[in-house]
Protein backbone atom coordinates (compact mmCIF):
# COMPACT_ATOMS: atom_id res chain seq x y z
CA UNK A 1 0.00 0.00 0.00
CA UNK A 2 1.25 3.50 -0.84
CA UNK A 3 1.25 5.40 2.48
CA UNK A 4 3.05 8.69 3.08
CA UNK A 5 3.72 10.66 6.24
CA UNK A 6 2.60 14.29 6.34
CA UNK A 7 2.96 17.00 8.99
CA UNK A 8 -0.66 16.44 10.00
CA UNK A 9 -0.98 12.65 9.89
CA UNK A 10 1.34 9.70 10.33
CA UNK A 11 0.09 7.93 7.23
CA UNK A 12 -1.91 9.25 4.28
CA UNK A 13 -2.63 7.31 1.10
CA UNK A 14 -0.43 8.47 -1.76
CA UNK A 15 -3.52 8.77 -3.99
CA UNK A 16 -4.88 11.48 -1.68
CA UNK A 17 -1.65 13.46 -1.93
CA UNK A 18 -1.76 13.21 -5.71
CA UNK A 19 -5.43 14.31 -5.73
CA UNK A 20 -4.57 17.36 -3.61
CA UNK A 21 -1.70 18.27 -5.94
CA UNK A 22 -3.96 17.95 -9.02
CA UNK A 23 -6.65 20.04 -7.28
CA UNK A 24 -4.13 22.84 -6.61
CA UNK A 25 -2.98 22.74 -10.25
CA UNK A 26 -6.55 22.88 -11.62
CA UNK A 27 -7.62 25.68 -9.27
CA UNK A 28 -4.38 27.59 -9.76
CA UNK A 29 -4.10 28.24 -6.04
CA UNK A 30 -0.84 27.12 -4.52
CA UNK A 31 0.38 27.36 -0.97
CA UNK A 32 3.54 29.40 -0.82
CA UNK A 33 5.86 30.93 1.70
CA UNK A 34 6.81 34.45 0.64
CA UNK A 35 10.49 35.36 0.58
CA UNK A 36 9.97 38.13 3.13
CA UNK A 37 8.31 35.86 5.71
CA UNK A 38 11.48 34.83 7.58
CA UNK A 39 12.94 38.36 7.83
CA UNK A 40 9.51 39.68 8.85
CA UNK A 41 9.24 37.05 11.61
CA UNK A 42 12.73 37.90 12.86
CA UNK A 43 11.97 41.64 12.84
CA UNK A 44 8.71 40.98 14.71
CA UNK A 45 10.60 38.96 17.34
CA UNK A 46 13.28 41.64 17.67
CA UNK A 47 10.90 44.60 18.05
CA UNK A 48 8.41 42.93 20.36
CA UNK A 49 11.16 41.14 22.28
CA UNK A 50 12.76 44.51 23.05
CA UNK A 51 9.38 45.97 24.05
CA UNK A 52 8.69 43.04 26.36
CA UNK A 53 12.16 43.30 27.90
CA UNK A 54 11.73 47.04 28.54
CA UNK A 55 8.21 46.55 29.94
CA UNK A 56 9.46 43.92 32.39
CA UNK A 57 11.54 46.67 34.02
CA UNK A 58 9.04 49.52 33.60
CA UNK A 59 5.60 47.93 34.08
CA UNK A 60 6.51 44.65 35.77
CA UNK A 61 5.73 41.10 34.82
CA UNK A 62 1.99 41.64 34.41
CA UNK A 63 2.30 44.50 31.90
CA UNK A 64 4.82 42.64 29.80
CA UNK A 65 2.72 39.45 29.98
CA UNK A 66 -0.26 41.36 28.60
CA UNK A 67 1.86 42.72 25.74
CA UNK A 68 3.29 39.25 25.11
CA UNK A 69 -0.17 37.70 25.04
CA UNK A 70 -1.41 40.32 22.60
CA UNK A 71 1.69 39.82 20.43
CA UNK A 72 1.14 36.05 20.32
CA UNK A 73 -2.57 36.48 19.53
CA UNK A 74 -1.70 38.95 16.76
CA UNK A 75 0.89 36.68 15.13
CA UNK A 76 -1.55 33.73 15.21
CA UNK A 77 -4.28 35.88 13.68
CA UNK A 78 -1.89 37.27 11.06
CA UNK A 79 -0.75 33.77 10.13
CA UNK A 80 -4.33 32.59 9.72
CA UNK A 81 -5.31 35.70 7.78
CA UNK A 82 -2.33 35.35 5.41
CA UNK A 83 -3.18 31.68 4.83
CA UNK A 84 -6.90 32.28 4.36
CA UNK A 85 -6.60 35.38 2.13
CA UNK A 86 -3.48 34.81 0.04
CA UNK A 87 -2.47 31.17 0.59
CA UNK A 88 0.75 32.23 2.33
CA UNK A 89 2.43 30.08 4.94
CA UNK A 90 3.58 32.30 7.82
CA UNK A 91 4.88 30.48 10.88
CA UNK A 92 3.33 31.62 14.19
CA UNK A 93 5.16 29.00 16.26
CA UNK A 94 8.71 30.40 16.11
CA UNK A 95 7.72 33.96 17.18
CA UNK A 96 5.52 32.54 19.94
CA UNK A 97 8.30 30.38 21.36
CA UNK A 98 10.88 33.17 21.05
CA UNK A 99 8.69 35.80 22.73
CA UNK A 100 7.78 33.39 25.52
CA UNK A 101 11.46 32.61 26.09
CA UNK A 102 12.29 36.34 26.20
CA UNK A 103 9.52 36.94 28.73
CA UNK A 104 10.51 34.03 30.96
CA UNK A 105 14.20 34.93 30.85
CA UNK A 106 13.58 38.60 31.61
CA UNK A 107 11.12 37.85 34.41
CA UNK A 108 13.52 35.34 35.97
CA UNK A 109 16.38 37.83 35.79
CA UNK A 110 14.31 40.57 37.47
CA UNK A 111 13.09 38.13 40.13
CA UNK A 112 16.60 36.92 40.94
CA UNK A 113 17.92 40.49 41.08
CA UNK A 114 15.09 41.51 43.43
CA UNK A 115 15.70 38.53 45.69
CA UNK A 116 19.43 39.28 45.82
CA UNK A 117 18.70 42.89 46.79
CA UNK A 118 16.18 41.78 49.42
CA UNK A 119 18.70 39.40 50.96
CA UNK A 120 21.36 42.12 50.95
CA UNK A 121 19.07 44.51 52.83
CA UNK A 122 17.99 41.78 55.24
CA UNK A 123 21.62 40.89 55.98
CA UNK A 124 22.55 44.55 56.45
CA UNK A 125 19.74 45.09 58.96
CA UNK A 126 20.50 41.86 60.78
CA UNK A 127 23.95 43.25 61.73
CA UNK A 128 22.47 46.34 63.43
CA UNK A 129 19.25 45.03 64.99
CA UNK A 130 18.54 42.29 67.49
CA UNK A 131 16.96 39.22 65.83
CA UNK A 132 13.70 39.37 67.83
CA UNK A 133 13.13 43.05 66.98
CA UNK A 134 13.87 42.40 63.30
CA UNK A 135 11.28 39.56 63.22
CA UNK A 136 8.66 41.71 64.90
CA UNK A 137 9.28 44.63 62.57
CA UNK A 138 8.85 42.44 59.50
CA UNK A 139 5.38 41.28 60.58
CA UNK A 140 3.86 44.77 60.99
CA UNK A 141 1.40 45.43 58.15
CA UNK A 142 2.54 47.99 55.59
CA UNK A 143 -0.54 50.18 56.26
CA UNK A 144 0.45 50.76 59.91
CA UNK A 145 1.65 54.14 61.08
CA UNK A 146 5.36 54.88 61.40
CA UNK A 147 4.95 55.15 65.21
CA UNK A 148 3.83 51.51 65.34
CA UNK A 149 6.91 50.50 63.38
CA UNK A 150 9.33 52.29 65.68
CA UNK A 151 7.58 51.00 68.81
CA UNK A 152 8.51 47.40 68.06
From TrEMBL:
Designated name of the protein: CHASE2 domain-containing protein
Q: Does the keyword Transmembrane helix apply?
A: yes
May I ask which residue range the UniProt record assigns to the signal sequence? Answer: none
Task: Tell me where on the tree of life, at the top rank, the source sits.
Answer: Bacteria
Transmembrane parts of this sequence: 36-57, 62-80, 92-112
Q: Which UniProt keywords apply?
A: Membrane, Transmembrane, Transmembrane helix
Xref: InterPro entries? CHASE2 (IPR007890)
Among Pfam families, the record links this protein to: CHASE2
Per the database record, which ranges form the CHASE2 domain?
2-53
